[in-house]
Amino acid sequence: MNLGHLVGEEGAGRLGWMPVFTEEVRAAEARAGAEKRASAEANTAGRVEALVQLLRSRSYEEIRQRMYDSAPGSAWWSACKAELELRNGQQMGEASVTMARVSEKMRASTQHFEQLAETLHQATNDIADLLRGTQAAGRRLEIAVYVTIGVTLVQLFNLIFEVFRKR
After folding, report:
1. CA 79 vs CA 50, 66, 74: distances in Å
2. What is the C-alpha radius of gyration for the chain, rounded to an integer number of angstroms?
3. Which end of the chain is more exposed for a tag (fewer CB within 10 A), N or C?
4. Could you tell me where the DSSP H helices lie in the chain?
5. Phi, psi of 70 (to 5 degrees)
6. Does 21 reside within a domain?
């Protein structure tokens, strides 16, 4: 603390070599300023909390408009920002829960589709085996028809030969 303007030049010189006293005064002034700022911040924080409670019943759009109308850093701006962040956080949480449910349903659906695809694959293989069997039976039937036609022709020629031989 320099009291040179009160004591004069020689008194100021004597006080100048007392740094402990001046540092203690400065520290006390800094503490008082810090306490004042802390008190103002606590008061502002309390006011912001009260404003947030007031904003709970307001619509999202109304809160956004009030935030844009208020100066950044003001109590209203801080309260609106806090309430919007809270609501956005809640919406993100709800969206995450919904996404987890949808993901679980999609996983169950995927498993069901995989089972259906496996069943369809098995049924397709069964039908292919049946078609191969039918194709083999068709070939056997075709051979039997050719044999029957051949035997019939041989019998017909034999009958004709017997008829012409007796004449």
Report:
1. 8, 10, 9
2. 51
3. C
4. 4-7, 9-16, 19-55, 60-69, 75-166
5. -95, 155
6. yes
d(CA 45, CA 56): 17
Q: Is the pLDDT of residue 96 over 70?
A: yes
Domain that holds residue 29: 1-57
In sign, the C-alpha dihedral spanning 35, 41, 47, 52 is: negative
Tokens in use for 84? Answer: 């919007």
Q: Report which residue type is found at 60.
A: Y
Give 157: exposed, middle or buried? Use CB within 10 Å, 0-12, 13-18, 19+. exposed
> pTM score > 0.70 for this model?
no
Number of domains into which the chain is organized: 1
Query: Do the domain assignments include residue 155?
Result: no
Closest of 98, 94, 55 to residue 75, by C-alpha: 55
- Cβ contact 22:2 at 8 Å: yes
How many Å apart are CA 105 and CA 126, to the nearest integer?
31
28 located within any domain = yes
pLDDT for 18? 44
